[in-house]
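User: Predict the structure for this protein chain, please.
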Amino acid sequence: MPGSHTAVNTFGPHVSVPAAPAPAPVSDAPAVKISVDNNHCALYAICQQEAPAVFDLGADGRLRYDTAPDPAHTPAVRQAARCCPMQAITLTTRETR
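Assistant: Here is the predicted structure, written as structure tokens:
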């Protein structure tokens, strides 16, 4: 039976349990534009931990980031902005075409 697994109950018969549905893809997330205030950024790299596909703290100590990331990254980017201890990340909604 595809899409299910068998649970073994030591006190009774085997039971087939339907598999949990896959989470819906985040396709309705709004696109955002990112800016980082370099005067406030202390290079803690928490943004990189939260959204590694968007933020990168290079070996040279410079923060690199995608100013207009794919909308699929919006939840992670929002979390990175919330977690920034210096509040150096600003997000604005942008139009996608």
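The mean pLDDT is 83.
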